[in-house]
Design brief:
Blueprint lengths: L4 E7 L6 H9 L6 E7 L6 H7 L6 E4 L5 H11 L4 E4 L5 E2 L3 H7 L7 E10 L4 E5 L19 E4 H7 L10 H11 L4 E12 L12 H10 L4 H25 L3 H14 L3
Parallel strand pairs: 1-2, 1-4, 2-3, 6-9
Antiparallel strand pairs: 4-8, 5-9, 6-7, 6-8
Helix pairs in contact: 7-8, 8-9
Amino acid sequence: MEPKISVITITYNSKATLEQTILSVTTQDYPALEYVIIDGGSTDGTLDIIKKYEDKIQVVVSEPDRGISDAFNKGIDRATGEIVGIINSDDILLPDALQKVAEKYDPQIDVYSGLILFWNEDTNETFPSYPDVTFDGLKLQYNVAHPARFIRKDAYERYGLYREDLRYMMDIELLCRFYQQGARFLLIDCPLAKFRIGGTTNDPIYKKKEDYRSFVRSFGGSEWDFRRIWLQAVVKYNLIQVGYRLFGNNLKFKIQHNAILKRVIPL
């Protein structure tokens, strides 16, 4: 029997990109699909797009929220599927992604982790990237590949939801917490989603400092651990910015450059 899969999209004033996301979900050739949209009270026409596809969306909530983690958690609370995926309103679920997850279904697996395609919309260039499936070290950077992760609903019930006090590190913190508490991860060795470059991933690193400090402390790190790792992160961030200025929109360079620095400066 195919597992029921709930897909959650959180959105706020996402009129420019939301329709692509909705179509990427509603055109999945997978019968046991539940689609949940959590809107933060949009005012730009987002709700008109949602209404256009309301016959294919099982749950719609539109109300102010306390941030991204709160919106994630609202969707998870309302999801009724055995497996839950989150595809944000500027990303794309690839064709047959849900079927590929279902083919690997195992009641003993908590987190299904697919490849992600980093996507430069301006050039339509994509570059594949593998997700991390082990989270056994105190570091600030993992490849979360968020739109290509599918998590059992009862794993959220056992290990907890997203921390609402975090703005940038909530997905890394959640996966580290799951891993350290014994959650079982499975790699699905094919792309499941496209991730549009942008959003909070482009925010200056100084905005993330307190999130990083809280993350380090929550996993037993000292203030000295945080300062050491933070210095490494700042150096890496600045080296990446130099590379971006030199090579512009070359997505392949950006991803490879980031991977090289991850090895040279392991965070």
